Amino acid sequence: MSQSRVDADEVRHVAELARVNLDDDEVEAFATQFADILEYFDALDEVPEVDRESDLVNVMRPDEVREGLSQEEALANAPETEDGFFKGPRVS
Amino acid sequence: MSDLNAFITEETIDGESDGPLSGKSVAVKDNISTKGLRTTCGSAMLEDYVPPYDATVVERLKDAGGSIAGKANMDEFGMGTTTETSAYGPTKNPVDESRVPGGSSGGSAAAVAAGEADLALGSDTGGSIRCPAAFCGVVGIKPTYGLVSRYGLVAYANSLEQIGPIAPTVEEAAELLDVVAGPDAHDGTTRDEGADSDYAGAADGDVDGLTIGVPTELVDGADEGVVDAFWDAISELEAQGATYEEVSLPSVDHAVQAYYVIAMSEASSNLARFDGVRYGKSGGYEGNWNESFASAREEGFGAEVKRRVLLGTYALSAGYHDKYYAKAQDARAWIKQDFDEAFADVDVLASPTMPVPPFELGESLDDPLQMYLADANTVPVNLANLPAISVPAGETEGLPVGLQLIGPKFGEEQIIRAASAVEQ
Predict the structure, then answer these.
(1) Please, which residues have CB within 8 angstroms of residue B41's CB and are 6 or more apart in sequence?
(2) pLDDT of A60 above 60
(3) Which residues pair with B214 in a beta bridge?
(4) Which of residues A53 and B6 earns the better pLDDT score?
(5) Least CB-CB distance to A88: which of B280, B289, B333?
(6) Domain span at residue B145?
(7) To which H or E segment does residue B92 belong?
(8) What confidence score (pLDDT) does residue A59 get?
(9) Domain membership flag for residue A82
(10) How many angstroms away from the CA of B335 is the closest CA of chain A?
(11) Which of B98, B104, B264, B373 could tie B75 with a disulfide, CB 3.0–4.6 Å?
C-alpha cells in the first residue's frame, strides 16, 4: 500500500506545494523514506474517537497599540530593502 | 574551550543586575532570541540573523543577574534527537566524545556537563531537553505547557514546545525555572501558576509516602542496561519511603505517530515564514516569487527540515488531513485521558528518559524512522502538556542513564521533590 502511495512524482508535487526545490537524489531518498514513515503512521487508523477537551476558551486582550520594533529594526535582517520597504521578487 | 562544539556563537553578555543568578553563566539554546546576538536555530537559513529583541526568558535571566555564556548548538530548528542535524556540525558528548549528546538541545546539555556553562536553557518539543540531559548525565526540566513564555522562541511546533532549564543538579535547575516561569503578556498561552514560584524549595528530597506509577509500556522494550539502572533508582526511592505500582497507558503506543504528524504539520506552517525576504537566505530576484522562495529554502534548509516540512505538507493536504492530522489529534486527546486517569491513583509517573544509551556519532542519521522511535518515552508528555524532569540515575557500560519523572499539570514541585531524592 505504502509503496504505491509515495513515488518520486508525489514527492515532487508535495515539494512544490511546500515551496522547497529538491535535487533528483533527494527526491529518490525521500520517496523511500516517506513510504516507511507513512506506513508507520498508518497505526493511527486504530485510534478510537475520543471526546476532545470541550472547556477551551479564547484568551483575548484589548486591541491597543503597544511599543513595537522601529522600521529600521524590522528591516535590519532583510537581504535587500528599498526606500524603507522589504524587497522581494516579482509576484507573478 | 574544548572541541565539543557545544556553542554556535561564543559571545558572552553580562547580567544586568544583582539577583538569584548573579555570578552564574547560562548557555542559551540558539533558537531563543538574544538581542544583538546572532540566533541561527542551527540552520544555514539564519546564518546572519541578529534578533532586534530579547526573548522573555532571556530578559528574565539577565534581570536575575545571570550572564549569557553563548548560543548553544542544536539540531536544525529543533528537529532531531542527536544534535547532528545542525548546519554548524555535531556536538560531542562530554562523557564519551564518540557519542552524541542527544538532542535537540545537545549543545545546552553538553555545555553544562562539561562545565562550559553553569546552567543552560533548552527547548523541548518532544524530548529535546530531557533527551540530552539524560545522555550527558545532567538534569533537565520540561515545564507544563503555559508555565514559561515562548515569546522570542523561534517556533517549530507551538502547541507542543516549552523552554526549560538544564543544570548539574535538580535544585539548580529548579532555581533557573523559578527565574523564567510565570505569565507574560507577550505569550497568550502563559498561565498564572508560575508567578512567585519556589520550585527550588521543593528540592528537599522528601519522598516519604510518595506514590510512583510505572507505565509498563515505557519500560518494556528498553535496553537491558537502561532497565536495570531504572529499577535500581526506583528501589532507592522505595528505601526512602516511596511506594510504586505498575500502571498501564495503552494510548502511548500511538504517541510517536501522533507526535510526528502534529509536529511536522505545525512545522510546515511555521517554517513557511522563511521566504528569504524579511530575514534568512535570499532566493534571488531572477524568477517569480514562488521560484525564489523555493530556491531560498533548497539552499537554507538541511535534509531533516525538508523531510519534516514536506511530510507535514503531505499530512495536511487535501484527502489526507482526516487520515493523519485529525487522527493524531484524537490520539493526543486519548493520551491526555490516560494520563489523567493514572494521576487519579499516583503522585508521579516514572520511566527511563530514553530507552537506549547515547548513540554513536553518525549511527542514526541515515534512518530517520529509527531516530523518531527513540523519542517513545518523551513525546507522550508533550502531547499531554505535562511537566517532566530527567535526572541522572546511574550508568550502563559507562554511559549515563536518565530517569524521567512525569507530574500532573503544574505539578512541577512534585517531580522536583521526587527527582531530588534520586540524587541522594
Answers:
(1) B30, B31, B74, B76, B77, B78, B154
(2) yes
(3) B246
(4) B6
(5) B289
(6) 7-204+384-423
(7) none
(8) 78
(9) no
(10) 10
(11) B104
